[in-house]
Amino acid sequence: MIPAHLRTALNLAATGVPVLPLHRGKVPFGNCPACAGNACGGRPNMKTAGPCRCPGVCHAWAAATTDPAVIASPSWAAAWRQAVCVGYHPGGAGLTVVDLDNTDAITWARTALPATRVVPTTRGEHWIYEGAVTSRNSVRPGVDIKSSMAYARYLGPGTGTLTALPDTVRALVAKAPAPVRPTPPAITVPARAGGAECCPHRTPAYLARGIAMAEQHITEARSAVHATVYRTFLAVLSRHGRCGCLTDAHMTRLFAAAQAKGETARHCADAWTNARTTLGL
Fold it and tell me: What are the pLDDT digits (tens) for 178-198?
């Protein structure tokens, strides 16, 4: 018998929607050992060197496909057995999902955006439009944009008729476009008189505790992982981004925690860059 999630995925793929399985926490499956750290060179649609020849489903949104032979292949079988839901790549289908995470965000959408197809979610709604844009989290309180280089959960066909992506959404994404970077940006640590290695306003233990709490916050995320990672990066940088004590080693720990939740190195780099841009660093 075909698993229910696999059947849903095949039906979606037949309509031109690239799909992938999502596991516990509603996140993509992580890299296999051969692809860890992007050692494989990445998938062609990740806009990196490659192509990766891994037959598995270990490249998050970039693994999404409409090929039924791949979706139902033995290399994907274990993932479908563990999957808790089906994900899809909106941008690959020429779509944009406006993810409204609470009632306030829904109220805003009803006044600011044209009616379109609406899909209820656990805490809010997905408003789906025709047209693809660059994805961006936290464009306003409770609102994420999921399109190119992102994935969304498939929660059913929804109601209403698809309409064209409005300029309002394009403007939200364009406010502070993040540069695409395949590797994390380096942090320059300025030298300080006396060789002090603690924050000028706190102790080394305070920074260590803050990094550990940030790692824990990411690790314990059960949903909205993209948003959680961005907000955690933003909190860390707002506290330590200007004092000169935040090093590449600290950043690597945060990136590792995010990638353990299914984020790619590219997504981590984009979230870090967005947070720095927001704070003017």
Answer: 444 444 444 444 444 444 444
